[in-house]
Here is the input.
Amino acid sequence: MNNEHKDNVTVIGLGQMGAALAGAFLDAGHPTTVFNRSPEKAEPLVARGARRAATVAEAVEASELVVVCVLDYAAVRGLLGPLAEALRGKVLVNLTSGSPEQARAEAEWAAGHGIGYLDGGIMTTPPGIGDSANMILYAGGPGLLAEHRPTLAVLGDPVDLGPDAGLASLYDTGLLGLMWSVFGGWLHATALVGADGVPAKEFTAVSVRWLRTVSWFLTTYADQIDAGEYPGDDATIDIQVAGIGHLLHAGEERGIDGRLPRLHLELMREAVEAGHGGDSYARIIEAFRK
Here is the structure.
């Protein structure tokens, strides 16, 4: 491929995710330098055209855009802390998983050394890297994502969350919590219908369609949450308490574990007892805020 207008990129850390990131840059024609503490992990990428750096200092020197994806933030600082001066004037894109507090501390460290800093949250697994249907969240230095969007877009759809570097990690953890809740509800429901012989694949086709309707409820409820008002003009908590009773009964008849729906019922009953039975389900957020 013609590399004339392609940014040089360095990728530090070649676990499954880091290797996928480097591979996507290579596939898009970016001259790519790679570094890993275990150098043999670079061999498949070198065979595809990557340049292997012998040291992390050499890797940093090779590119103006340095992407790091390692075990944790302590590893990031251990590798790059001694190279603050070498990083001055460059852009560091940290795609390592961590907490919002860690991300903000790293951004403060980078700013103190004249390093452009973006913190990222990768919302896919390694096989999904390079697919524009998958999001990668970015937060940090104003203007940096816009400047480097064409390069970073080869990894996935770049979503700009603004200048607070902690927001990518915060969104990441919140979205993972949402994912696990969806997985849990789907598995419980699949076990329920499966007890009557319904194949998981057949039920899931209907489930995915239902989730589109659920997403409409989320959008509606978001406005209510921001306003702090929960009009029960769709389905009140009172009505949903009755509905979850049917779910529990069906599960008991089929020997399905009911811990998950009982948790929902407990939260709903607390709202009803507090006098909010006529409100929408969005009211339940107040239970979590406690």
About this structure: The chain has a mean pLDDT of 97. The CA atoms of residues 98 and 137 lie 13 Å apart. The radius of gyration is 24 Å. The first helix runs from residue 16 to 27.
